[in-house]
Design goal:
Blueprint: H1 27-47, H2 56-83, H3 91-100, H4 105-113, E1 118-120, E2 127-129, H5 174-179
Antiparallel strand pairs: 1-2
Helix pairs in contact: 1-2, 3-4
Length: 181
């Protein structure tokens, strides 16, 4: 078992890492987005009265941009519906805010205010923020840290980027600690 850098520490099997963000969009949101896009194109090009010949490119643009806008709105709502759960925030409340506030303001508010992602300590299963370096309950080390200043380092670092400490001098250097069973 390995523990990566602080962004993906712990919970590997549950797919918590930020790298699979696209997989965070549920199927219903994708289907809704496609249906909405096709629906708007249909509305613009079939239902509305035919424009004069010269105006066709403009209408094509209009249909395309409004279709994309509405489709991405559904994808966003879908993303929030899943993202909210891994941060132990109130799902109904945030779904309501993101859905009802006009012009995507709800989504902006959500991304400004969302809590850090939660993960579980692999040792004692306490729920902790994924940015923690140590578990506050059992002192399990979640991420590699410098042996002198105890701030986070990357496993590829040779020296601490905060204090310049030679990481190889630590009793268990960060990279060994991370790659250890
Ligand atoms: Zn713990
Ligand atoms: Zn340091």
């Amino acid at each position: 078992m390995t523990f990566g850098h602080k962004h993906s520490a712990g919970g590997g099997r549950e797919g918590v890492a930020g790298s699979d963000d696209l997989g965070m969009i549920p199927l219903w949101a994708v289907i809704l987005a496609v249906v909405a896009f096709v629906g708007i194109e249909y509305l613009v090009h079939v239902v509305l009265p035919k424009p004069r010949a010269g105006l066709f490119p403009m209408r094509l643009m209009m249909g395309y941009s409004s279709g994309t806008l509405v489709a991405s709105y559904f994808l966003l709502v879908g993303y929030v519906s899943r993202d909210v759960k891994r941060r132990s925030m109130s799902a109904p409340l945030w779904m309501l805010i993101v859905t009802l506030m006009p012009g995507g303001i709800g989504a902006v508010v959500y991304f400004l205010l969302r809590q850090p992602m939660l993960t579980r300590c692999p040792h004692c299963a306490t729920e902790i923020a994924s940015s923690y370096h140590f578990c506050p309950q059992c002192q399990f080390q979640m991420a590699p840290v410098c042996g002198r200043c105890f701030r986070g380092v990357e496993i590829t670092d040779v020296y601490c980027k905060q204090c310049g400490h030679d990481l190889a001098e630590d009793q268990v250097p960060a990279r060994l600690r991370v790659f250890r069973g």
